Amino acid sequence: MSDLLAQGKHLKQQIAAQPIVRQRRILDPSATSSRRTGASSPDAAKIHQDAATMTRVYEVIEFLKKSQRPCTMDEIRMHIHDFQVEGPEFQQLTNNAKVIYNSKSHTFAYKPEFDIQTSAELLEYLRQMPDQGGLEVKKLNDSYLADKLTKVVSELRESKQVLAITDKDNRARYLFYNNWPNEDIAIDQEMKTSWMRMQVPDENELAEEMKRAGLKPTQIEKGEEEKVEVKKPKRAQRKT
To answer: How many CB atoms lie under 10 A from the CB of residue 135?
Structure first.
């Protein structure tokens, strides 16, 4: 009898030691996916529609930039076939900072940062800005001169109508109006020699050389900034 009770007790211990495996409930995948898509489909459709609108707006602006003149809506539709007059892209274009919309003629035109179309207009623009320094050449990429900019700048330099600051490859970086295009200004040979002897310090030594000369660099590395010790005021101790 005692052996039977011992065997029963041992069997219960073995059963209790076995791992418990819970049965997972399998959901209907079609019902799950429909709930997800049903909740997000309106948002997804709106995002897709907005992206398509902005793509058409970008295409129209690029077309106007290349046209370099006001274009009618019919001309735009000939190149952008899905452009809709009553669509959201129409409102986007009329309020766009890079587009000029004429409500009387119903035309659109590109609005560049610099409204310069010819070399004569560029020369006049430079003439009117003597106190503002030179004009950075790369900014003219947002103008109607963008496609022929290199040629125009080269011709103005060759005719000595403009002065240029160049890079190491002799490409113009900044342009200045030349007030004396037909005059050869004689420079003393001693000044030329002194100029050629001047050496710019190495980039790693430039900041230190400027400090020695009493000049303050426009930018200082964080590691080189002088640390100012801020002393916290001492708290008065209470007398007990």
So the answer is: 19
Would you state the pLDDT for residue 158? 92
Q: Name the packing angle between helices 149-158 and 119-127 (round to 10°).
A: 60
Taking the CA atoms of residue 34, residue 35, residue 37 and residue 39 in that order, the dihedral angle to the nearest 10 degrees is 150
The dihedral built from the CA positions of residue 183, 189, 193 and 194, taken in this order, carries a sign that is: negative
Tokens of 224: 């080189």
CB-based contact 60:80 (threshold 8 Å): yes
**Does the global pTM surpass 0.85?**
no
pLDDT in tens, 180-229: 777 666 778 888 888 888 887 787 888 888 888 888 766 544 444 454 45
Condensed to tens digits (0 to 9), the pLDDT of residues 124-177 reads 999 988 666 789 999 998 888 888 999 999 999 999 999 999 888 889 999 999
Give the C-alpha separation, 173 to 136, whole Å. 6
How far from the centroid of its chain's Cα atoms is residue 63's Cα? Answer: 21
